[in-house]
Amino acid sequence: MTADDSPTGLRTEYASDPLGIDETNPCLRWRVETDRREARQTAFRVLVASTRERLDADEGDVWDTGKRTTTRPAVEYDGAPLTSEERYHWKVRVWDETGAASEWSDPATWEMGPLGTDDWEASWIRRPEDGEFERGRFSYFRREIALDAAVERARVHVSASHQCALSVNGSVVDRGQSFAYPDYQYYKTVDVTEALNAGGNALGVLHTWNGEGQGRPEAEPGLILRLVAELADGSRRVVVTDGSWRAREGPWVDAPLRNGEIAEPVEVVDQRRRPDGWSRPEFDDASWDAVEVLGEHPTDPWERLVAQNRRIERHAVVPDSVERLDTDALVFDFGRVYAGVPVVRFESGVDGRRVEMRAGYRRESDGSVSEDDGTQWTDMRYACVQRDGEQTFRPFHYLGFRYLQVDDPGEDLSLDQVKVVARHNEVPDPQAATFESSDETVDEVFELARHSALYGSQEQFVDTPTREKGQFLMDALNISRVTTRAFGERRLSRQAIEEFVQSHYRYWAESGRLNAVYPNGDGKRDIPDFTESFPEWVWRYYLVSDDRTVLETAYPVVRAVADYVVRHVDAETGLVTNLSGGEGGPYEEGIVDWPAEMRYGYDREWPARTTVNLLGVNTLRRAERIGAELGRPDPELAYFRRRREELESAVVDRLYDGDLFVDGCDAEGTSEHASQHANALALAFGVVPEKAVGRVADYVADVGMRMGPMMVPWLLQAFEASDRPAAMVDLLTNAEDDGWANILARGGTFTWETWHCRDGDLPDRERRNRSESHAMGATVLAYVQRVLLGVEFDDAAVGQFRIRPPTDGLRSATGRVPTEYGPLEVAWERTDGAFSISLTVPWNAEATVSLPVPAETTASVDGELLVTADGCTDADVAGVAGVDFDRTDGELAVDVTAGTFRFSVE
């Protein structure tokens, strides 16, 4: 091996050099960047040291794994107990397929946060307020400190109920953390080393609290902070929130709430009340209030603080254009929908002038920004009450929007005076996945989905960044399926899965269910189909992440969900019947799809619904697969398998009419309606009798799009399972029928909640209640990768992939898929009488490539014949490293190792 083959990309808990983690057995991961054929790991050694100097001297005084024989490029720490707020240094070397050792990797670090409640030594504080807490309240907090020497290292651990922006010496250094219940309150650790100076300094926090709503549990206003500064003179300074802090009300004016879901106010900011320099040293805060000290942590209601080692990434987007209306209003167009906050710089403000603004998705015929269409009845206004002179208006809360209207600003606003500060969950690379094909519309759909999934990922996976910023389970599952494969994202998906696991224990431990949205202000609320879908999410996440910790954490809940399904199996029909959940609402006993018009006439008037039963089949299949991965006892796995087989048999016996699957039944009769939902799910889950697969697949393809964005991944999986890539391409590119191409044709730039957002046939009130920024519809990206590029994850634990280019639908496709081992790249092309494919399999991985080889064809790899018209030519390919193959039924299955390979079939 060479120095170039040493490990790189070192991560702790999927993060590079994370700060403030509280996982006491963190997982350490690495990869090797090499294009060498057959390159793989056979062993590794990890050193963890207390100092960089010891690590450089090859001393693992904290932990030395010794040489461990394994192909897995990851290890869970099992050394000495880790210490609060300590920094650890680590490196790794690997042994390759020949037994040669690499050089040591460059060093990496991780830092622990406060691990115990006693480690905080800080109090929860808030601005005093008489009576009930006002929703949408904004408060400033500040504290000055003097440091006796230069700062070597400084960290702030901070948490706010609900959100905050942290400033040091006048500059904002971080914002907010994820919403949570007070007994599981998140905190963040922020590096403030460069922001602090020897001498006078000031800490400032802008804090907001909105009360309960979507994504916001019931809680109280509160702030806690702990600064730890290590100084050049060897001393250590700790500053915490306590009675020495000062507070004052923010400059936000009382205003109505945007809607009843998120409890955020319309943001009207009085610039005259904004205290310039409030977070800088030597600011006069004599008129500010003494804070209310609620008690040293833990104190009611905050019982526990949990580290969150990820952040929101922000970047400025300038408008594409601006238009002045007859009313003198200016309308700025940012080109597509973003989640973010508008920022407007006024150069000539006038004291007391109120400038009204409005964000939105569409424009009316007169050019103004629509107040209703696409907004889900959200009041998307802003207002700036100016002071004299230059000033910048910047609200706190984000919305999803494309247009910003500024009414009569009193000056000409140029494009560089207005921007949207777009925001999304930090990911390793927003452009990690690529796709380009012979069909331009398919490429545009891929980009639509990529953009939507990115901006649908905030503190949680959000339902929409406009009205419901809560994390719905099915929305989160759909978005996670994209972010993990498009960006290499792991940490938000892990957090989301763990939060829904918490929802089970908080509300549903006796019944085996999960919350439909979590965390949330309305507490205990479920949707049966969402609960049934949870095991699929756990398995799909594991396949791409190799996150065994989450698999182990989620498995007891997966088993509880399986038991929940089995308990509802009716003895007479053998079917899941009257599945409890969603009581008293439109989701009772199964939502089928959402919004309601996306059911396309599905017949729900049956106690045994086909979609519920088919999801139950998949629940039991995934429970068995996850249990097997964790090495659960054979009788346990046999239980899942037997109940699944029994349920599958009952579905075919009762819900398959010999031609198609109908929507439901009872003991006496069956529905006469055969929906696309029922038949697509039957195909996707492999329940269709073998002799009927062609007929059912034809029906599913011929009816077009008759499933909504929430459930459409099962339609795409049905095309994959029945080998109908051309039908999938037709679905993706049909601009006349419902679907993604239709969204693009109507000017949409973000996936919608329903295909009918701009459908004149939908009742006006319902149309206005539909979101035009709903990332759950982005799942198409994953199936473009799986079906049209041909890349699927087969086994996360051993780095196995399946590459099967489609037989029709496209002439060519090129793309890149991020994996735990590095990017997997594929480029294939089909021309008259010939097919070629090149692929690069990353280090430590393997792939099985399926090539079409009908009679009288030849196939070769790197110019060496694999197959002639007479059959396989083993001897001719013996010298091609990293290749093995098997020919059956007109298809050549070629097993390849790491490296780049070029195949051709003629």
From TrEMBL:
Catalyzed reaction equations: Hydrolysis of terminal non-reducing alpha-L-rhamnose residues in alpha-L-rhamnosides
Start and end residues of each Alpha-L-rhamnosidase six-hairpin glycosidase domain: 431-786
BP GO annotations: carbohydrate metabolic process
Residues covered by the Alpha-L-rhamnosidase concanavalin-like domain: 324-414
The keyword Hydrolase is annotated on this UniProt entry: yes
InterPro entries reported in the protein's UniProt record: 6-hairpin_glycosidase_sf (IPR008928), 6hp_glycosidase-like_sf (IPR012341), Alpha_rhamnosid (IPR016007), Bac_rhamnosid6H (IPR035396), Bac_rhamnosid_C (IPR035398), Bac_rhamnosid_N (IPR013737), Ig-like_fold (IPR013783), Rhamnosid_concanavalin (IPR008902)
Residue ranges constituting the Alpha-L-rhamnosidase C-terminal domain according to the UniProt record: 790-861
Enzyme class: hydrolase
Region (Disordered): 1-20
Transmembrane segments: none
Domain of life where this protein originates: Archaea
Keywords: Hydrolase
PANTHER family: ALPHA-RHAMNOSIDASE (EUROFUNG), ALPHA-RHAMNOSIDASE (EUROFUNG)-RELATED
Record's protein name: alpha-L-rhamnosidase
Protein's organism: Halogeometricum pallidum JCM 14848
